[in-house]
Amino acid sequence: MSLEQQPREAITDQEHLSVLGYEDSFNRSMSLWANFALGFTYLSPLVGVYSLFALALSVGGPPSIWWIIIVGAGQLLVSLVFGEVVSQYPIHGGIYPWTRRLWGRRYAWMAAWVYIWAMIVTITAVAEFGSGFAASLFGIEANPTSTLLITLAFLVVALLINFTGTKSLARVARIGLAAELVGVIGVGLYLLIFQRHQEFSVFFDTMGVEGDGSYGPAFLGAALAGLFLFYGFEACGDVAEEVENPAKRIPVAMIMTILVGGVSALFAFGGYVLAAPDLASIVAGEDADPIPGILEASLGVVGAKVFLVIAITAFLSCVLSLQAAASRLLFSFARDGMIPGHAWLSKVSAGAKVPTNALIVACTIPALIAVLVWINADLLVPVTSFAVLGIYVAFQMVVLAALRQRFKGWKPAGPFSLGALGFVVNIVALAYGIFAMVLLATPGTSGDFFTDYVVIIGLGVVLVTGLLYLFIARPDRKSTAPAGDAVEVAERLRTHSSAVR
């Protein structure tokens, strides 16, 4: 695919923001690699593979690995659409400002409402999953209280690092990137080369998970193995005003996040499958947490401990990136007067130049949810399941809004452009997104109503509460921020570019 690069070298980041109606108020200290590291540690293949490895194998068997390729290809199309949007609108907040400028204030409010809740519960879920690694490393008994305390420690440490500024965020994100690459690619390659107990043909062997029926439903049921992995790349755009030359660099960082994340996940998932000494017991659902056993059998006790340190680093970096992305979305929401407490939430610290109050919220609410999980451990699975569907819904609201603007004549004016292919990519990305949401929302078959419909119930609660607030409080009327101006802004950017050349 050849990308059409628009000649816009003359326009500066400050001039670009001015055309969009904003002043440059952040430190642009984030490089391309740091921006990529932020998105990659948010996507976190280590977290995704570890969390869903046993579930994917017990539902779909070894062929469930192919979902990593299927979903990766679909999300790559979505990232290309996002790349064109952020290239024209390199402003803080990502999905909220994109949907506002592509469609309107009400539409953007709902997209951001769904997305912010999905991000907040994702922060909780990642910190909760990471607590198990920390407990194992330090020999702490895993119980509800220890899990809560370690989860809160993850949240607070990430908050303190975020308070210190963008440079610290970028530095830790790069450390997290290194930990992820060692933990997934390094360990995955080692397992593939030196610790194989299975043949590569196992990835075409269902191992009987379908029972007496067709394998199709079993394979579709294992889709979460890929769907849970490939989001987080949008975080690259959430911090756009802290990136130098974001209109060019952020689209590249998003694409790199998908490609490197996909390869990493394949190495990790494939390595664990091939190195499993008793794969049949995992597929049969008899081993609910097989990875520690695989690692200890392959790396020894010391090697497994080293991996735990790497894993904890990756989990902390993931929480850090999630907090940063959520706070920038809250800041962007508040800057336009679209959320209660907007004056407080939109404050930026004088020294570190970060939205400290928004960061506090992005730590406090996940901490409260963690307390609820401590009271009732069964809540963790529902909130995690909602997070995945909620994020995909928000993503596709951007894709749909972009397609709508294309039908109205929008030709993206950023330096990253797909040219004539943009229309086709946009349509296929939307079709993929609908397919993914149907898979995520399909009720289970356990026979328990709440368990089977919990994902739909969670999304329904968020949508209904958001709509009620929208039509009662009318936050869209409290903002004078520009909306639905994609065609006009594209023309202004082209005119401005020509004038300064």
What do you see in this structure?
The chain is built from 20 helices and two strands. It is mainly α and 501 residues long. The chain has a single domain (30-478), classed as Amino acid/polyamine transporter I. The chain has a two-stranded antiparallel ribbon. Helix 6 crosses helix 7 (144-163), helix 6 runs antiparallel to helix 17 (380-407) and helix 14 packs across helix 16 (356-375). It is globular, with a radius of gyration of 22 Å. InterPro entries: AA/rel_permease1 (IPR002293). This is Amino acid permease. GO terms for molecular function: transmembrane transporter activity.
Question: Which keywords apply here?
Answer:
single chain, 501 residues, mainly alpha, Amino acid/polyamine transporter I, 20 helices, disordered N terminus, transport, Amino acid permease
Which residues form runs of ≥5 with pLDDT under 50?
1-8
**The CATH superfamily title:** Amino acid/polyamine transporter I
| Proportion in β-strands | under 5%
Strand order of the largest sheet: 1-2
Number of domains: 1
Estimated helix fraction: over 70%
Assign the CATH class. Answer: Mainly Alpha
* Main sheet properties: 2 strands, antiparallel
**Helix count from the secondary structure assignment:** 20
Mean of all residue-level pLDDT scores: 87
Class by alpha and beta content:
mainly alpha
Would you tell me which CATH topology applies? Amino acid/polyamine transporter I
Number of strands: 2
Give the CATH architecture.
Answer: Up-down Bundle
Shape: globular
Question: How far is it from the N-terminal to the C-terminal residue, by CA?
Answer: 29 Å
